[in-house]
Amino acid sequence: AVAAAMFADGSAGSADVGSLWRRARGARCEAKSCQTGPIVTAEAAVQTGTKQEAGVQTEQGAGAAQGSPQEGPADAARLLSFLQRVEDAVIKELSKNSRSHAFDGFEVNWTDQNETVLCLHTLSYPEAQHRKLQVTGVSWNATGAVVACSYGRLDDGDWSTEKSYVCTWNLDRRGLNPQRPDLVVDVPSSVMCLAFHPSQPSVVAGGLFSGEVVVWDTSRTEDPLISRTGMTDDTHTDPVYQQVSWLPDGKHRNHFQLLSASTDGKILVWEEERDGRLVLAEGFALVAQQIPCSIRLKKLTWGETAVGVTSLSFSHFDPCVFVVGVEGGFALQCSTAVRTEALQRPGSSLPLRAPAELAFSSHGGPIYSVSCSPFHRQVLGKQPGNAPYEMFLFSRNLFLSCGTDGHIHLHSLLQAQPLVSVQLSKKYLFCVRWSPVRPLVFAAASGEGEVQLFDLEKSTQKAAVSIKQTPGESPVYCLEFNVQQPQLLAAGDAMGAVKVWQLSSDFTEQGPREMKHLEQLASEVTD
């Protein structure tokens, strides 16, 4: 009974245990609420409530209240009468102004003026520089965007087995790397000169130390070689040092032949066969006994036969006329129209002709470069019977020459003695080029490491600007103006670099009387 009483059933009230976690979390949420308090808004006007008009024209005059005045027949008649009265006087004054020289020399130029010469790019191929190869030639392609250079040696070295390169850079390419050419062509012999095709931007020709002439297509990166002369009886027996040129083919429109000149005395014209061979189309040979004796040629040894050709330039106005520089130090006027055969030893597949017609006054050493003027002055006149005719004056006959004596000669084809002779360097001058846009400007590459810019309008005896291209006196061997972008001049040197110079407007903008000045220089031949 006692046990039953201790464990009897019973009911008790419910127990409530409060949550400490919910209470703490609620406190945190309240303290760190992410909502802002109630937003109070109010309206405000952003424009004024009143408007005001303002007149932008003057008030009409009293006499114009009925509208704008209209010209009547009487006004038109008075204007016509006035114009008829002054017509003769106005025409007379306009004619007088057209003959006036009051504004000679004044030219409006809307472009920014650049008064300095800047180096835009220094291009090089490290492998060629590591082997101490020199830049022997430079050329711009037909678009003016790509510059090519040839590597070889012009000093001591085993030339006959020296491997070399042809490199190209597209200056318009985004991300141009001056030390990484767009194309590198390996050549088993030193490349002594090169020239881009006049109309095909990717085709370039080169003359080799071995005497060969080679043509590459730079768009074919795997195998750019497209034609070559090979080593035949027609091939040059001496290096093709300074000259390969593209010539228009007179028989086929838009077709070009390739000319090469060498110190073996031969000037050869090649045409391409379908199998990739360059075959001889015609040829010329300079032989001592057939050089005209218009002056005393002290540098010529008459017992010798071949006269070594070191440079060549065609006239821009007569496709048959060209000028060559030779090892004897004199320049020769030549013609492709000659028919006299050269006194040459047999062996060529075609008979060679003797082209020399006139010898000019000698330099003090071998000539390294000649350049014919691309300018002439054209005068329109009347023949008897009032028929028009064209007359080309003296400036078309001008050419430049330079050589080991450090002198530049300005010559006319009409006389043996130079019109101007100036010493630009105490060492050799390796190259001279006439500007394509300034009749009185030319550039020369010196053995003292300078590019000399000459302006005959300023001085006939002193360079206008001397640009130092190389450290010390390392020579500059070659240079070329960019015909498409005449403010650009490329120059290659013995350090293995090509520098692209941007010329100032002084050297690219022709003055209004410049051709007249050139004509005056050229006409001195008649004095």
Automatic annotation (TrEMBL):
<keyword id="KW-0853">WD repeat</keyword>
<protein>
    <submittedName>
        <fullName>WDR34 protein</fullName>
    </submittedName>
</protein>
<dbReference type="GO" id="GO:0097014">
    <property type="term" value="C:ciliary plasm"/>
</dbReference>
<dbReference type="InterPro" id="IPR036322">
    <property type="entry name" value="WD40_repeat_dom_sf"/>
</dbReference>
<dbReference type="GO" id="GO:0045504">
    <property type="term" value="F:dynein heavy chain binding"/>
</dbReference>
<dbReference type="GO" id="GO:0005868">
    <property type="term" value="C:cytoplasmic dynein complex"/>
</dbReference>
<keyword id="KW-0677">Repeat</keyword>
<dbReference type="GO" id="GO:0042073">
    <property type="term" value="P:intraciliary transport"/>
</dbReference>
<dbReference type="InterPro" id="IPR001680">
    <property type="entry name" value="WD40_rpt"/>
</dbReference>
<dbReference type="InterPro" id="IPR015943">
    <property type="entry name" value="WD40/YVTN_repeat-like_dom_sf"/>
</dbReference>
<dbReference type="GO" id="GO:0045503">
    <property type="term" value="F:dynein light chain binding"/>
</dbReference>
<feature type="compositionally biased region" description="Polar residues">
    <location>
        <begin position="50"/>
        <end position="60"/>
    </location>
</feature>
<dbReference type="InterPro" id="IPR050687">
    <property type="entry name" value="Dynein_IC"/>
</dbReference>
<dbReference type="Pfam" id="PF00400">
    <property type="entry name" value="WD40"/>
</dbReference>
<keyword id="KW-0963">Cytoplasm</keyword>
<feature type="region of interest" description="Disordered">
    <location>
        <begin position="50"/>
        <end position="73"/>
    </location>
</feature>
